Amino acid sequence: MRWLLILLLFFARPVAACDLALALVVDVSGSVDAREYRIQMDGLAAALRDPVVSEALVRARAEVMLVQWTGASRQRLTLPWTTIDSFEAADRFADAVADDRRIWRNYSTAVGEALAFAAGHFDDVSCGRRIIDVSGDGPNNEGVEPRLIHPDLKARGITVNAIAIEESESDLTAYFYENVITGAGAFVVTAAGFEDYPPQIRRKLLREVARQSAQTPAPAPRLRKVRQ
Questions:
Q1: Bridge partner residues of 69 (DSSP)
Q2: Strands, E, within 18-103: which ranges?
Q3: Domains of the chain listed by start with CATH number
Q4: What pLDDT digit, counting tens, does each position of 181-208 carry?
């Protein structure tokens, strides 16, 4: 029995480690109407289904979660950490994003509180890279200032990237650069408005997840039909 156990352990296929934990943190504050919310969620789901994005997530054996956020006391984990270890898992998560119902409608913009909330959930995963991908259409106007969260984010090894939706705030990109993003290589992508969000969130995800690793085995090739 002992020799059988040793043989099983010797020939067992190693489990690929998680290379990326990605928190998708979506603005649902009062400045985002129902149509704009739908543009965000459908655009995010489409970006996750992109063949290059989904392959990179599978290759990284990524853990991905979704947070809706608005005012100081209103953040909710609506899709918990999900392991993306196959194209089917990537598609299921994208479908869940598209189907995610809005929690709040009429509250303020607490960017710092959203970052703090998301950061606390990284204790539940063990991955090489830790990234918060936060969207927003306005500066922080309630709760703790985002910059005050940066020391804790640094201590946890979390990078924050942002997509600035400049629907009504033309200098929002500069605000996010100065106050929201943090970490090595952190960046901001600008969407000229909500209609511009889908292509920009795809560009942002490509930049975040498409880093190839020599240690990460490639998934089995599969021809994928891109959804229209």
A1: 27, 75
A2: 20-27, 62-69, 75-84
A3: 17-155+193-209 (3.40.50.410)
A4: 999 999 999 999 999 999 999 999 999 9
